[in-house]
Amino acid sequence: MKRLPILVAVLRDPGPLPGLRLADWDLLLRQSTSANLSPTLLALIEEHGLLDAVPAQPRAHLEWVRALATRHRQAVGFEVESIQAALARVDGVAPLLLLKGAAYAMAGLRAGAGRLFGDIDIMVPQARLDDVESALMLHGWASSQADAYDQRYYRQWMHELPPMQHVRRQSSIDVHHAILPQTAPVHPDPALLRAAAVPIAHAPGLATLAPADMVLHSAVHLFFDGEFDKGLRDLLDLHFLFREFGVRAGFWEALPARARALELERPLFYALRYSRRLLGTPVPDAVVDALAPAAPNRALLAVMDALFERALLPMHASCADALTSTARFALYVRGNWLRMPPLMLARHLFHKAFLSKKQSS
Question: How far is the C-alpha of 351 from the C-alpha of 159, rounded, in Å?
Fold first, then answer.
């Protein structure tokens, strides 16, 4: 593996920060901005007691980042309360199950410290989708997809409603009923996820996925996707989740078995592999051995290493080489391939490439 970009090296080990030159700080902040990780970098610096070692110029930038992160955190809390109030009378959705960034933030997990995200993700039973959508519409949210094909695409084949946006605040909600599209080759049972959900102790009426399920959802979100503009942020989520949950009794022992039960051994294998290789995540050897049967063959794994170890770096010119754009394109194609069978994929890409453009012109 080639030399790590300065941002990845600092996320892996912040110790050398006091020795950075101003030119290093400039590049570090540029990479963190491109990766949407500036507030996370600030949280890491403070966690290690290194803020006083930051020179005046980059520290001024980080203080501005602090204000941004504070406003974001306040907005997330307000939006979650608003969603909770909108769905208070809908049967079968309490407690409100939060996913990804909103779950990390509201549960006070380390992965949520400084994390920026655009959407509030929730998960409800599929049988309650119509009631949930109606209740949200009555409280000001509306579908952001006007195209009839996109509406059909989401409602018939995907694992979520078309994204909804508040008409005044422009805040966005993704309403999931599963964690993978109905057209995907594997089908983690949403009922198993909901049954194991964990209430948030200090936030009545809210819940998150169980620790192992939260890790698996994060893994499937990253490694079944085809867009990696926030890939490093999502890999860092996994790193923090592994570290935080890994000290809990029984977590590592239960994780491979839970992955098998949910048909998610391959994405967990990739999550463990690249969090260890890029971020130095401590993972017990027994867990690595337990996931070995889920690994691709040696040749394919070499290809995936070449792709992921480029695509998971910040989208900044200093992190790219001659093959980076090819790697990102190949993973984009792979992500779509994993989401739908070949004929459906061909129709979908044809519509997006030609018919959608024609309709919008």
Answer: 20
